[in-house]
Amino acid sequence: MADDELLDSILVMRVRGSKKLRIKIDAEKAGVSMSELVRRKCVNVQPILSDTDKERIDELKRIGGRLKYLHDESNGSYSQDMADGLSELRAFLSKLRDLIKE
């Protein structure tokens, strides 16, 4: 938000006393008001994913599940190859999660 933007709406919300205290402490540590802290935190709390992103993530999970199934069914015959594949898949999913959080 630009410094010159007018804050023209009020949002009222209910929280537990312990949560309010946590917000107050965090705001004091950051040197900002509680309202400013909540505004800043709310911008990136939950990423909004497109349907395509969700489908890709689901497909990657399905592939991982299939690799695990094949590993189990082969009694580990290709255990090193499967382990390598699962490791690469986990690394890719981790990177994808990090990108989504940005």
What do you see in this structure?
The protein has 2 domains: 15-45; 51-101. The chain contains 4 helices and no strands. 0% of the residues are buried. It is 69% helix and 0% strand. The chain is mostly helical. The protein has helices at residues 17-30, 34-43, 51-73, 79-101. The mean pLDDT is 80.
Strand and helix layout:
Elements: H1 17-30, H2 34-43, H3 51-73, H4 79-101
Helix pairs in contact: 1-2, 3-4
Key features?
102 residues, mainly alpha, 4 helices, elongated
Q: TL;DR?
A:
The protein folds into two domains: 15-45; 51-101. The mean pLDDT is 80. It has helices at residues 17-30, 34-43, 51-73, 79-101.
Order of helices and strands: HHHH
Give me the secondary-structure category.
Answer: mainly alpha
Cα-atom radius of gyration: 22 Å
Total number of distinct structural domains: 2
Total number of beta strands: 0
Proportion in helices: 55-70%
Mean pLDDT: 80
Oligomer: single chain
Unreliable sequence segments: none
Helical segment count: 4
Largest sheet: none
Distance between the termini: 17 Å
Assign an overall shape: elongated
Percent of residues in beta strands: under 5%
